[in-house]
């Protein structure tokens, strides 16, 4: 999703402002100065020479990681070498001229955090006003003018703002990868003695999105079915064709159209698009599987042939191609591609599924169970049952260490690219906690390690967290060559929107949409949204005890499907609505408020971060029985020095008939103090409410739908519970009768 909003051909409104804005890594100006708070930047350096002489000369060295700060060498960006000295430095030779100096455009540095300026003479040199004119996102003046946002709190991580930060880190990473047309690396590569030359033309139109494996592609021409180039000029001759990159471009075409609705563009490329799909279909033989004959890929070992990963991606190509053909009015082609996808799914499971392992194998001659193919199988619904999805999710977790999944198909490697798909697969399997655990391990490491730029995302790293990514697979054991701003690592940005927020569009521009938030990961709530040319799509949800509150805001004239955390009665815009067995309701576009229960019965009292506050008051009144107030035994009190009196509240339970004296009830411990029942006036006999000292009333939420297990939770905002109290009935004999009388 993220990649396409950056290049949409229409002007969109900005996202609303809020506390999330402080986590936006993009600078406020496209000219940034030394010691600004911004971390990863790229472009042309300027400075003032205030005092020079005829002997003065300086050099500029650039690096992303602090591990490679060096006055005599930059990190390698043009080509990897074991001694890490390919790029060298940019030299400004003697004699220097007093006044303003700007780096020539051919020597643009695409990404760096640290600039080292070294003098090469013994004379005094004074300089000032060191700045960088940012070159990426050339079509945008305000880098912070996002058309979407995301905001949540993560009480399980050492930094509760982590998930919001990683969302914005992904967004900023893709911005840094969106570059002018004429800023590519020159090929053949130039030796360090001449510096680096980043003035190659890399496409037919710009700006260009680089360092991702898929995106909208422009085909100026394509004759009979043939492969799209893996890379644009000037690297086209250096890199042979790739069936996998070819397929990703087709998937990217669908994604771009889904969010832009750019029918004129799709019509322009449609003939070539159909040829590109036919090229892949031509590789399917009598086995019913695609034979991958051009196996260049993201770096994995063992690609090619009747490979599970390649065939999973082909399945996604056929599904998205069928969808596009439908929008183009070609029902026959849509049906053919859909039927081919169905046939491939059956062959895929027959060829690759291993029941004893609960995983898909890499190909028919191996027992390796790859991260990529298994993630794609769940994400793209190649699985045949929910149990199969859960089994694959469990199997993928077995590859993890403390920093994330170690890739079976590329040993000693953690790949944020493939892990981004695994992250989504765990959500698809309903394993929300596992998905968030993965996110915290892998992206938590990337964003906070002192080896990174701590603002954009690493291309990859080794199993122990070092930067020697792909050392033996083309990077010549040069850790300085690893990119610290790689768009293919930004998977969490879209995943947090699609799954935690639960917001997706299901037809072009969001004419139809879906809201299906994943609430079982322990987060207290989330909000966010994005804009298309139809208007704003926004969602906000909050969990309080076992009650779920949600606000949805979508353009008028659209329609959406909302998946709720539980079935039963839900209040939609103050009207009770019965939700079917699948927990789904249909809504028209506009603003809606939904309130309902969840299937997380009383889980709020199990959260270790929820702490009772001393001085808060809970009063239980009932004519039914004797009640006492307890805190859950797993909750550890964390008492503030001055508890707020505004948190004092009164909890009123529904009035029932008086029961036996507690002294006659053997279930009541003698030493337990009881709260004597008090008579209530008729006005007080109502559904249970929570009333604070200001008079504000909130509903009381029932765990397990029993009034004898009522839970009251006060939360001033979504960042965490401040009071949890459980009122437990001490008489258990009439539980059934009480349940029958209780309000739903």
From TrEMBL:
GO BP terms, alphabetized: carbohydrate metabolic process
Organism this protein belongs to: Armillaria solidipes
Swiss-Prot/TrEMBL keywords: Glycosidase, Hydrolase, Signal
GO MF annotations in UniProt: hydrolase activity, acting on glycosyl bonds
Acidic residues: bias regions: 656-675
SUPFAM superfamilies, sorted: Six-hairpin glycosidases
Region called Disordered, residue ranges: 656-702
Residue ranges occupied by any Alpha-L-rhamnosidase six-hairpin glycosidase domain in the UniProt entry: 224-398
Keyword Hydrolase: yes
Ranges of residues in domain Alpha-L-rhamnosidase C-terminal: 512-569
Classification via InterPro entries: 6-hairpin_glycosidase_sf, 6hp_glycosidase-like_sf, Bac_rhamnosid6H, Bac_rhamnosid_C
Signal sequence, start to end: 1-17
Keyword Signal appears in the UniProt entry: yes
Annotated protein name in UniProt: Six-hairpin glycosidase
